[in-house]
Design brief:
single chain, HD_phosphohydro, about 60% helix, about 240 residues, disordered N terminus, about 0% strand, Catalytic domain of cyclic nucleotide phosphodiesterase 4b2b, mainly alpha
Amino acid sequence: MGFSYDRYSRMISNPVRNYWALIAGRHDTNAFSVIDAAYRESQRRYHDWGHIVDLLTKLDCLKALAVRPDLIAAAIFWHDAVYVTRDDDGLLRPDAENVRASAALFERHSKFDETDTQAIHDLIMATANHLNARATVEHYPGFSRDLDLFLDLDLSSLGASWSEFEQNLARLRFEYAWVPEPLFCLGRLQMIDTFAAHGDALYRLDETRKLWCARAHQNLARAQEELRRQVARLASSA
């Protein structure tokens, strides 16, 4: 039985429909329902359909850079399918656990052949360590470059306008609403410091570096300044 778009036609944008049409036949019939339910979870504000649409739209603009845009699209659909910020014990859930769970969920619904399934799995797993991930197996000629493009796409929001960057920070704050403000600010500052320290190596491809790197570092520098002031204010009022 083929996937029916009728239920979703008014709810999802063309990049989602178009890219899912490209890969739907290489999934079981429940796959899209699983993805759709995941990205509509109430605890999400950044890691939701908006993020997926953004990445698919950018992939569509940059697909000439990809060897296998279909596999990159599949990784985009699944890479945040599991997103939980704290475990049942109330402690912070390591993001790598979400990534592993997302990759496993993809594999449960995949009907891609073995090589393509492993390639998509490795793309998803690379998001557990964006800045240092490297392809350990060249699943097809050009896989390493596709991995670099996928990771650059996933960090492309760092190079958005300041207003969008600021809104994304607020969306992330919602997802971590249970974390006390001082701890959240320190965690965000540490993450932003790490991104900023990578300089031009923040993006891997020359093409994406030209698109996003300058604005990303402007945003990161501004966010560092504002977060440091906020951390100092919170410390002084404690």
